[in-house]
């Protein structure tokens, strides 16, 4: 009965069917898979050494790389991940699947859910030079649904929390052009997923609880992180520091910047030291009127910092922010910095 339930969940949730690792399994896969093109489904062969189907998929998730995540999130299927649009839904499914397979505790607004639901107002598109941006339009119009995703690695105490975050939304499709957002911010999401996988692989229980958050509607004025601060799914006063990652994948490798209101707080200090230890540079830089989700927390008096590539503006908010705009070694270095920061803040 238990097995059947797991099987059914995978079937319904992921469009995937698991088969035992036998000659019959191979045969069924080769014959049936081509017939499943519409709707698209995939057959998996489960090797005998995997104790459960879940274990098999977890090992598959643990072997994924930053490149795999960026490829998936900036693919045509994700349609630029605009908050409120179908691409955001696909991206949120991808992320909640990874969070579930990696065993994070669901910290959404309902029990056993990673999602925190909120609504977004109508937005207007406008160009600032060659950059497409959103401004909030009529707030009385019918609002579209959007989702933050939150999951935790429970520490020895849940009374002290460190948040690691990245926004996963981008600009979507405008006038027939897809804005893939490979750097902004599939790179930051890949960086956070890389940190989760590294910590899960190490199996060490942290001293404090680490919460991983993927915000949406950042491009519409930090709406996801603002929603969380206004209606937190975990007590806000327990959050001791926030390390946010945004657009970390381009420019000279090792050349990062920090957006922070306070260079002496523990979040900024931890990231600066982590960058130095990783052989990179991360100095406070002028935001020049731009910002990211750390601002929602800073305004609530919580130490918060955003790590970004120093040259983040190159190709930003243009259709050219595709895979070619990202250097994978730069994303991996950013992940190493965030990993070192979290080790010092929470372990
Ligand atoms: Zn952006």
From TrEMBL:
Q: Which SUPFAM superfamilies match?
A: Zn-dependent exopeptidases
Record carries keyword Metal-binding: no
> Under the GO molecular function aspect, what terms does this record hold?
aminopeptidase activity; metalloexopeptidase activity
Q: InterPro entries under this entry? A: M28_fam, Peptidase_M28
Q: Give start and end of each Peptidase M28 domain.
A: 148-339
One GO biological process term: proteolysis
Keywords in UniProt for this one?
A: Aminopeptidase, Hydrolase, Protease
PANTHER family, sorted: METALLOPEPTIDASE M28 FAMILY MEMBER (PTHR12147), PEPTIDASE M28 DOMAIN-CONTAINING PROTEIN (PTHR12147:SF26)
Query: What name has this protein been given in UniProt?
Result: Putative aminopeptidase
Q: List the source organism.
A: Desulfitobacterium dichloroeliminans (strain LMG P-21439 / DCA1)
